[in-house]
Amino acid sequence: MGIYVPVFYSLEGCLCELKRLSITAPNVVRLYCNSVYVNWKNRNEVAHGKNAKSVSVSAAKIISTAFPISNPLIASWGANLPREFQNIWHPPPPGWMKINVDAALLTSYNAGIGGCFRDDKGRLLIVFGEKRLHWDIATLELDAVMTIRKFIQPWMLEYKEIILEGDNLNVIRFIQNSLNKAKWQSFNRVEENLLFLAEFNKVLFIHVHRNCNRVADMSATLALENNFFFDSSSFDCIPPLTTSILKKECEPLL
């Protein structure tokens, strides 16, 4: 007797089966996902010169963290977990950079866009906000994506892959579709505005829950008042509300 361990031959098959098992056998899903995560983390630690964890230590870690009381899902899972399994911000894979963007709009048409850049350890690289005057939230969120161009620094090109997240599904889908030249020739204006991303080997546009986008949301809200920009030289000036959100999101990573 033992625990049923499914064998998958494709990512699509894996996701479909895990989704099905999450209803009939959620414990298996937790163990499976935790096993993948712990082994992935172990391999990365070895690659960075650290000692490998023994099988017994890894097994204990998998079992002890697979069944959190407060959260039935795996809170420490990385950025590659399917969107429906995420409800908090997660760092990107090692060597990647993640950018979150959002927009805020008042009935007076005063608006703000904002975003933040973070590395694979959850460390803040840049946070920004810009005031706008507009009436359409989708246009503003698209503008937030386009605006990251001015904040890309030369040293950021060391990150060969980036993830760009937003909580407006229509905008993310529009961008994804516009980058498909064969099907969306009429949307090449968007493609041209995103050419700066060609400096990176891979760019993923991902829709996330609002809970995964809190820093960007707060940045957009603060931008209703004034423009701002903070990097490593001015982190001490970051508004307390933003600092509080960052602290809460980073605590599980420590």
From TrEMBL:
Pfam family membership, one: RVT_3
GO molecular function, one term: RNA-DNA hybrid ribonuclease activity
Residues annotated as domain RNase H type-1: 101-222
UniProt-recorded name of the protein: Ribonuclease H protein
